[in-house]
Amino acid sequence: MSKEVISDIQAICLIILFISGGALALPTGAAAGSDLWLAILMALILAIPLYMVYARLLSLYPGKDLFDILEDIFGRFFGKALGLIFIWFTFHLGVLVLRDQGEFLITLSLPETPMIVPIILVTLLCIWIVKAGMETMGRWANLFVILDAPIPTIVILMLIPQMDLSNIQPVLYDGIRSFLKGTLEALVFPFGDVVVFLMIFFALKPRDSKKSIFIKGLLWGGLLIAGVSLAEILVLGEDLYLSTYYPNHNVAGKVSIGELLQRLEVIAVVATLTSFFLKVSVCLLAVSNGMSKIFGFKDYKILATPIALLMCNFSCFIFDSTIYKFRWLMETTTYYFLPYQIILPIIILIFAQIKKRNNGRSVKKENKSV
Amino acid sequence: MKKLYFIIIVITLFILSGCWNYSDVNKMRFVAGVAIDYDESKDKYIVTSEVVKLLEGGQRFGSALFQSRGETVFDAVRDTIMKNARKLYWGHTKVIILSKDVTGKRLVPILDYISRDGEFRDNVWILISDEDTANEIFENTFENRDEITSFHIDDTLKNEKNISTYHAIPAWRFIGTTYDKGASPTLPMVIVAEKDGIKVPKVRGQAIIKGSNLVGTLDETETKIYLWIINELEGGVLTVKTEVSDRPIEVTLELFANKTRIKPIKSGDEIVIKINIESDFGIGEISGEVNVIEKKAREVLKRDTEAEIKKQMENVIKKVQKEYKSDIFGFGIKIKDKMPEKWRQIEPYWDEVFKDLETEINVNVNIRGSALTLEPIKIED
């Protein structure tokens, strides 16, 4: 298998798009009410140490991914079992994002089209990009960041006349408890999802600083999300924000500058769909890679098609309606994803550190004895 | 292999070159506006939709009216399609006119339908008909149906800045305000008026909605003062009676710029709402020969204008507090912003508190210029 390599800029772009995929369209940190922009910023700050953990894990094992690391630390059997758990998490995440993407299109513009149609189309594209490989994906991300990051920023700027400061005042009126709950929600979605990159960043150049890749991606992506959420809450106010499924789309339609610049929903939809697509592709790549490592295939690319078709299938019957899905997402995801994103990586890092230190000692001992 | 690709490309040409459920423009009808009434005796909604129609000759647009009934608004809308035999397209709908008796508990389902339905743009204008029913607005205006009433109303509402006798808010903002405990929304009212022998719709005054009930109305002058208080006034004229060197005259002032700041302050245990108004005027018209432009007379004019504005504002606020008991000025929101702790205590009794809320109005008027002339026109006998 030829070794794939992506540059650090491409890796940063991947992280930016991955964070904004989904979170650009869907509300996040909703429990914090009108303080959710603050909750997202708080989550961004909390995500910095978390990303340090991810970066540290990768830099302890340069050129390896999570599955190699797990096998090295916990041995063949337990390592593979833990790997399977992570594969399940990533698979489920990919399914959810795929479903979000399909529902987003169906709800907003194509109510009479069956949901499977957009889902199948995106699935085919995902198979294509995963088969083309990690390098192609990196270049794609590099190109599309130029499209996806400025569009929401421009929309925010054009919404300034519609903003009302009293929508976010008084800050922390609902109390610190709901604020913290919102922070946790925002930490899990979208920031925690980046744990998926542990499974595909075998492609980083060994000498690149993992820390700076993760932190730069986090800052750009996180600030974009926080800015968009702040604009949404300033325009819509807490109650309308929470009552719409897709606040960003709603808000983009409110842009009205002169008679000329109106109804920018369509541009917002383009930005949202492309970042959705990237998020699904990254998940698919991670699952394929993990499966191929666990079952000892030489190349992950042959697994892309069956796994993508499984995801496609699963995303269609996982929820029976949008209402049910949103309830599930609001009530369950935070606690369901938390262990995979925060608790397990920290435990793995602790074990990895202990193992490295022991290795170091034994190496020293051997040196001495020689 | 090449042949296979060729066949695939040809096939995709046929399957993908078209939209899934495309409907031709000539198969659809564009709804310009909707009027919603309620038939008490039969317990049914009456929905009148004004549909854009190409007039004979194909050069100009006119309109046609369709009426339908249903248990719910959605039901009635579907009924329109049956009668119309063509698909109705709601994406270009500009106005929704509600009759007075639709407010109350029937307002919520209508708002829900507007914000839930994908085809409605949620920045349609909502108006209240000041006539007996809402469909009169459509039926009695432009009787030849060679103009589109809804577009006429839409144009009027967009020119709010120059007229200031009503305050238009799009549906989504109205729905947002209904959520708020500390504020009651208002809606503009529309009547049928006559202009040059043609009946046209005229928008004037505001209807006050409280908890989805219509509790009262503001007339044109009161609406202007209301706009002044909520800092939405951007132009307009004000006539002031003043007395310069013992001769009473009327001066019409044109408003150039206005800034209103509402600030709640604590005085003892009570809350006092402080309204600071900073207005720039120009002298627009002087009825009389008195020179009000020279400095001393200008001082008098300034003082009288300030007193006049203050008096009118106090009257409107009193009326809203005592008669309608609904916080259309958003004082509650201001209190929540500035004194969250106090608001937590008074929120449950806000209606009672608002009724007896003290206000303190400070007006500062600047007379900036006198348009093109320096002195009044003198008529020498």
From TrEMBL, chain A:
<dbReference type="Pfam" id="PF03845">
    <property type="entry name" value="Spore_permease"/>
</dbReference>
<feature type="transmembrane region" description="Helical">
    <location>
        <begin position="217"/>
        <end position="237"/>
    </location>
</feature>
<feature type="transmembrane region" description="Helical">
    <location>
        <begin position="12"/>
        <end position="30"/>
    </location>
</feature>
<dbReference type="GO" id="GO:0016020">
    <property type="term" value="C:membrane"/>
</dbReference>
<feature type="transmembrane region" description="Helical">
    <location>
        <begin position="115"/>
        <end position="133"/>
    </location>
</feature>
<feature type="transmembrane region" description="Helical">
    <location>
        <begin position="336"/>
        <end position="354"/>
    </location>
</feature>
<keyword id="KW-0472">Membrane</keyword>
<feature type="transmembrane region" description="Helical">
    <location>
        <begin position="36"/>
        <end position="57"/>
    </location>
</feature>
<feature type="transmembrane region" description="Helical">
    <location>
        <begin position="77"/>
        <end position="95"/>
    </location>
</feature>
<feature type="transmembrane region" description="Helical">
    <location>
        <begin position="187"/>
        <end position="205"/>
    </location>
</feature>
<keyword id="KW-0812">Transmembrane</keyword>
<keyword id="KW-0309">Germination</keyword>
<dbReference type="GO" id="GO:0009847">
    <property type="term" value="P:spore germination"/>
</dbReference>
<feature type="transmembrane region" description="Helical">
    <location>
        <begin position="300"/>
        <end position="324"/>
    </location>
</feature>
<feature type="transmembrane region" description="Helical">
    <location>
        <begin position="266"/>
        <end position="288"/>
    </location>
</feature>
<comment type="similarity">
    <text>Belongs to the amino acid-polyamine-organocation (APC) superfamily. Spore germination protein (SGP) (TC 2.A.3.9) family.</text>
</comment>
<feature type="transmembrane region" description="Helical">
    <location>
        <begin position="140"/>
        <end position="160"/>
    </location>
</feature>
<keyword id="KW-1133">Transmembrane helix</keyword>
<dbReference type="InterPro" id="IPR004761">
    <property type="entry name" value="Spore_GerAB"/>
</dbReference>
<protein>
    <submittedName>
        <fullName>Spore germination protein KB</fullName>
    </submittedName>
</protein>
<keyword id="KW-0813">Transport</keyword>
TrEMBL record, chain B:
<dbReference type="InterPro" id="IPR057336">
    <property type="entry name" value="GerAC_N"/>
</dbReference>
<dbReference type="GO" id="GO:0009847">
    <property type="term" value="P:spore germination"/>
</dbReference>
<dbReference type="InterPro" id="IPR008844">
    <property type="entry name" value="Spore_GerAC-like"/>
</dbReference>
<dbReference type="Pfam" id="PF05504">
    <property type="entry name" value="Spore_GerAC"/>
</dbReference>
<keyword id="KW-0449">Lipoprotein</keyword>
<keyword id="KW-0564">Palmitate</keyword>
<keyword id="KW-0309">Germination</keyword>
<protein>
    <submittedName>
        <fullName>Spore germination protein KC</fullName>
    </submittedName>
</protein>
<feature type="domain" description="Spore germination GerAC-like C-terminal">
    <location>
        <begin position="205"/>
        <end position="370"/>
    </location>
</feature>
<dbReference type="GO" id="GO:0016020">
    <property type="term" value="C:membrane"/>
</dbReference>
<comment type="similarity">
    <text>Belongs to the GerABKC lipoprotein family.</text>
</comment>
<dbReference type="InterPro" id="IPR038501">
    <property type="entry name" value="Spore_GerAC_C_sf"/>
</dbReference>
<feature type="domain" description="Spore germination protein N-terminal">
    <location>
        <begin position="22"/>
        <end position="190"/>
    </location>
</feature>
<dbReference type="Pfam" id="PF25198">
    <property type="entry name" value="Spore_GerAC_N"/>
</dbReference>
<keyword id="KW-0732">Signal</keyword>
<keyword id="KW-0472">Membrane</keyword>
<dbReference type="InterPro" id="IPR046953">
    <property type="entry name" value="Spore_GerAC-like_C"/>
</dbReference>
